[in-house]
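During the first year of the project, the team set up a workflow for recording each protein of interest as an amino acid sequence followed immediately by a discrete structure-token representation. This format lets reviewers and collaborators read both layers of information side by side without switching files. As required by the reporting guidelines, we include two representative entries from the current panel. The first entry is reproduced here exactly as it appears in our internal archive.
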Amino acid sequence: MCRRILPGLFLLGLALAAGAAGAQSGDTVVTTLGGRELLDLLRDQGVAPELGRDSEGDPTISFKVEGLKCVIFFYNCEHGRCRSFKYASGFSMKKKPSLAAVNAWNRERRFARAFLDDEQDPHLQMDVDLDGGVTRTHLVETLSTWRAVLTLFAERIASE
């Protein structure tokens, strides 16, 4: 019985220590985010973002990753604070990828989903939910994930 409890206590201690280390390093947990905050975070990561607004008045952020145009759309916003956002990128192509290729991407990859629009141009999107709270470190990691999946997707559809 002690053998089962001790590893559990050890893991709990590690989790508490990690949480305390995050709090001490200033990695505050947020459950909402404003456009300006995410804009600043993107700038800190070497991205040249531009802040805008959608037709509802919610923030949008435009930027490029490896020369590929991206937009961040914010959702569930109240008083300029939003509880989720979505990375998005669309490709206008002469040679269109097949629906089978897009479906294969969705089957084989995680984190981002692809689809074809009405003109059969491919799009990639990745949602980020702030419910329950996330840290700045987590937000930086979502940008890193977006960069990786977007680059892979662009290579995949270019070779289609």
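The second entry, processed by the same pipeline in the following quarter, appears below.
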Amino acid sequence: MKFFKGQNAVDFSVRDIYGKEIKLSDYKGKKILLGFFRNVNCPFCNLRAHQFSKLREAFEERNLQMIFFFESKPELMLKSIFHRDISPIPLVGDPEKIIYSMYGVERSIWKQMKTSLMPGTSTAMKEGKRLNLPEEKDRGASANLIPADFLIDENFKVVKAHYGEHINDHLSIDEVKAFAGLAELAGINH
């Protein structure tokens, strides 16, 4: 099931990679960025998570909570220095893709192949690989999983549902900054 603007977010209760319970409805009254990434080794996804980790404090000051899902096992994520450094943003390993399925996150061979045709792909891959990603490959990862992002308001309504058109397609950081009320930082990359 795909989500659209105005729908209620679907609640879930999961454990993050540290075993802390994360229940989406506990964040009612806050703005939420719910991000669905590929796997622990994906340079595109990890580059994006790195960019957002630098904005965490500013977002939290504006009442925006980020929750990030990876399709990797929590044990593999915990082996990664990079993923430990993103904390305290809740990181959830969902290798069975249960929550991915609840939010309509898709797989697409066509969209996966389309990524190689996008400008800047090789540059992003090089940048992402410099992030000290785990050497151990995620054998259960889906090569064709396409990322998705959801902006959820304080009343638990989906303000924006963004389903990627390729592996490196997420909501723009400026759009998330504007949602958080940080329009003055739009266009400034941290």
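For the second entry, the following points were noted during internal review. DSSP finds eight helices and seven strands in the chain. The two ends are 34 Å apart (CA to CA). Both points are flagged for discussion at the upcoming steering committee meeting.
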